[in-house]
Design brief:
This protein is α+β, with helices and mostly antiparallel strands. Helices cover 20% and strands 43% of the residues. The protein has one domain.
Length: 79
């Protein structure tokens, strides 16, 4: 099982949460970004159905994986 940390950071003139190098939408306040990060963290740990996912990796190549709905990460929010 992996661990995901949602970090509250200044971003684009406001606040956002960063997760593994990716930024959320920008929020006007730190508290708003923190609330959004907590919601994202809660959603991350909920078990769901296994599903196929397609995405572009860091090299711009298309990837296809099956995500096991029971294999959920632990989460925390920092900041």
């Amino acid at each position: 099982m992996s661990k995901r940390t949602y970090k509250i950071v200044k971003h684009n003139g406001g606040w956002a949460y960063e997760d593994n190098g990716r930024f959320s939408a920008t929020f006007p306040t730190r508290d708003a970004a923190r609330r959004a990060a907590r919601l994202a963290a809660q959603n991350q740990i909920r078990p769901g159905e296994s599903t196929s996912i397609d995405y572009d990796d860091g090299r711009g190549e298309r990837q296809h994986e099956t995500a096991d709905g029971a294999d959920r990460a632990t989460t925390e929010v920092e900041g």
